Amino acid sequence: MNLLILGAGEYGQLVKELARNKFTTIDFLDDNSTAAIGKLTDYIKLKEKYENAVVAIGNNEVRSEWHDRLEEARYNLPTIISDKAYISPSATIEKGCIIESVAVINANAKIERGSIISSGAVVNHNAIVHKYCHIDCNAVVGADAIVPEKMHLNYGQVITKVTKPKNWEFSE
């Protein structure tokens, strides 16, 4: 199986390492990297060679746009999960997510499409991380907490069921 990674920067390199044992060929697309085999917009002409693609771009808004483009082009959007992450058997992780080493996804937690769960992050039981979020290193999503779409939870931050930032609006 082949994998195309959109984004050849530092994060793209991390994703390649996470995926190396699951894909036979892994290549990059990036507008600004000599490590890439083409520009981001080349994803259309490479569809015949690559059936799988993932977006390794940290900006949540940009990641969501490219994720949607890849989906429209009918790429498989695999979830890349480190062998050193803990994923509860009752957790749900949607397509196109990246789960890094030592991350914990506990019982009945739900991680929606295109989200990144970084090293050491914890998504506790019954929590929901909506689409295209980034839960950074050592951040904690408490039990029953709901993280709104495209939110970036920074290093070491904690969000609980009762935490509600001023600009936070969502519907369940």
Which helices and strands, and how do they pair?
Elements: E1 2-6, H1 10-19, E2 25-29, E3 52-55, H2 60-72, E4 80-81, E5 86-87, E6 92-93, E7 98-99, E8 104-105, E9 110-111, E10 116-117, E11 122-123, E12 128-129, E13 134-135, E14 140-141, E15 146-147, E16 152-153, E17 158-159
Parallel strand pairs: 1-2, 1-3, 4-7, 5-8, 6-9, 7-10, 8-11, 9-12, 10-13, 11-14, 12-15, 13-16, 14-17
Describe this structure in words.
With 172 residues, the chain is of the alpha/beta class. The protein folds into two domains: 71 residues, Rossmann fold, CATH 3.40.50.20; 80 residues, Hexapeptide repeat proteins (UDP N-Acetylglucosamine Acyltransferase, domain 1), CATH 2.160.10.10. 13% of the residues lie in helices and 24% in strands. The strands form four sheets. The chain has a five-stranded parallel β-sheet with strand order 4-7-10-13-16, covered by helices on one side. A five-stranded parallel β-sheet has the order 5-8-11-14-17, with no helix packed on it. The chain has a four-stranded parallel β-sheet with strand order 6-9-12-15, with no helix packed on it. The relative contact order is 0.12. The model has no long low-confidence stretch (mean pLDDT 94).
The number of helical elements comes to 2
CATH superfamily of the largest domain: Hexapeptide repeat proteins
Strand share of the residues? 15-25%
CATH class category label of the largest domain? Mainly Beta
In the CATH hierarchy, the architecture of the largest domain is 3 Solenoid
The biggest beta sheet is recorded as: 5 strands, parallel
Count of strand segments: 17
